[in-house]
Amino acid sequence: MAVVLITPPGGTASLATEGWTQTPQGPLGPADRDLLVKVRLAGLWEIPSGQQAQQRAVSKRVKEVGMHLMTDHLKLDEEVRALAAKLNVPLPSQPNTDQQSWIAQLAAVNAGAEYDLLFTRLLRQAHGKVFTVVAAVRAGTRNDLVRPFAQRAVEVVMKHMTLLESTGLVNYSTLPEPPRALATARHSRWRRSSWSTRPRASRPAARTRCCSPGPPTWSSRARCSRRARSAPSRS
Ligand SMILES: [Fe+2]
């Protein structure tokens, strides 16, 4: 059996069976395929939901947003199917389990204000989730066909988030929290390992004063150390 070796991001040769394939437009990885699948899935539930919103929403703005979502995804769906055929990526033909549940929730609620709120909440949450995926592929893909498509997907998802927010019905406190800032996490690790594990009585008083709330840098750490060494120790 022939084994094909390609070089994915990171530069290490890997077996094609791990999910990377070579195409005339560059390597195609699992995240590239996932992007195409997610864009197709988005169309499979947003096209009918956008169409439904035009009939069941009470707010004029929600009806307009539904129309934009439907027409944008009709176009994007054509593009993703053409690209997937070119790259030999199989696509789903039905919404996934989550999307089917959202469609059922929308079908179950009465037309009117309650429908408007649910439509906006479900669609806004779904767009926030998929945005991170398409943005990551746009940033890192090695494939020359996927890159412009990922860019277009980023633009469409961002446009739809903005449209949904323009209804004035989005409750931001119910959205998933953004990931913890890397700098904050690093700062906390540094403080835990070099400071908070020490017995309180042994901590120099000057150290607490010079440790600023921002992320530490090499120069700020050195400054802290110098001040700590020169500070009088507690009795
Ligand atoms: Fe969308």
Name the CATH homologous superfamily of the largest domain: Ferritin, core subunit, four-helix bundle
- Structurally, the number of domains stands at 2
Spatial extent as radius of gyration: 25 Å
Task: List the quaternary state of the chains.
Answer: single chain
Write down the secondary-structure element order: EEEEHHHHHHHH
Number of helices: 8
* Class by alpha and beta content: mainly alpha
CATH architecture of the largest domain: Up-down Bundle
CATH topology of the largest domain: Ferritin
Break the fold down into its secondary structure elements and pairings.
Layout: E1 5-6, E2 14-15, E3 21-23, E4 26-28, H1 30-56, H2 60-87, H3 97-108, H4 113-140, H5 146-165, H6 182-196, H7 205-210, H8 218-230
Antiparallel strand pairs: 1-2, 3-4
Fe (ii) ion (FE2) binds at residues 42, 46, 69, 73, 127, 157, 160.
